[in-house]
């Protein structure tokens, strides 16, 4: 699965919105987007030389590449295209539920825009907890359901999502179709509950709203989406409506469980 979006501006309208993104986002000091904070988070949490499991790694992508700079990366995916990921030490296809690894096999797990596609989140988090070593972390990035993009994807039938998603992001016609979404682990309250059910601890949960990628198709979309971004970033009271959740969960050490 391809989860990192690299924009390709090909139509006149996207050339226009590219100029708007440059003016209001990319040229502004301190602008980071959504990917750099995620990479920084897992680099801070995962020790050098760690054995890392990337869930939903798909074919070669910048997240797998960045993880490979931290430690050795094993990837799993429901799509056999994962075998084409050149940044992985090992690649495995699985059923989306049961991970084909022994208990306590990894120092860290990472997923990047994957949880929204997970149909059985309780089983997913329990599997992550099982394959993590004590003290290991699960770092992930996933959309917040209480955002217009996620909520729209949740209520729309999948055929409509296929029709609109790539057009609004101004992706080329041969871009990969979006995978079905469930959004069953995509609120802060749900993630806290899943922690308790799986035996993990919530170490960090941060909400961010980067540049509005769904405003790439036309300036008529860019400006209202930009105003939304400015609004939800103006006060912590509105952070629950920001699009991206950056999360770190941790498997307790045996001594911590007994206390």
In percent terms, what proportion of residues is strand?
A: 15-25%
SSE pattern: HHEHEEEHEHHHEHEH
Strand ordering within the main sheet: 3-2-1-4-5-7-6
Regions with pLDDT < 50 over 5+ consecutive residues?
1-12, 173-177
Q: Roughly what percent helix?
A: 25-40%
CATH topology: Rossmann fold
* Level-2 CATH architecture: 3-Layer(aba) Sandwich
The beta-strand count equals 7
**Overall 3D form:** globular
Chain-averaged pLDDT: 88
Classify the secondary structure makeup into a structural class.
alpha/beta
Question: Radius of gyration, rounded?
Answer: 18 Å
Count of DSSP-assigned helices = 9
What is the secondary structure topology, with strand pairs?
Elements: H1 12-26, H2 35-45, E1 51-55, H3 62-68, E2 72-77, E3 90-93, E4 106-112, H4 121-131, E5 132-143, H5 148-155, H6 158-168, H7 188-198, E6 201-208, H8 219-232, E7 244-250, H9 254-258
Parallel strand pairs: 1-2, 1-4, 2-3, 4-5
Antiparallel strand pairs: 5-7, 6-7
Please, could you describe this protein's structure?
With 259 residues, this protein is an alpha/beta fold. The protein has a single domain (12-258), classed as Vaccinia Virus protein VP39 (Rossmann fold, 3-Layer(aba) Sandwich). Helices cover 36% and strands 19% of the residues. It has helices at residues 12-26, 35-45, 62-68, 121-131, 148-155, 158-168, 188-198, 219-232, 254-258, and strands at residues 51-55, 72-77, 90-93, 106-112, 132-143, 201-208, 244-250. Strands 3-2-1-4-5-7-6 form a seven-stranded mixed beta sheet, sandwiched between helices. Helix 4 packs across helix 7. The protein is globular. The termini are far apart. The model is unreliable at 1-12 and 173-177 (pLDDT under 50).
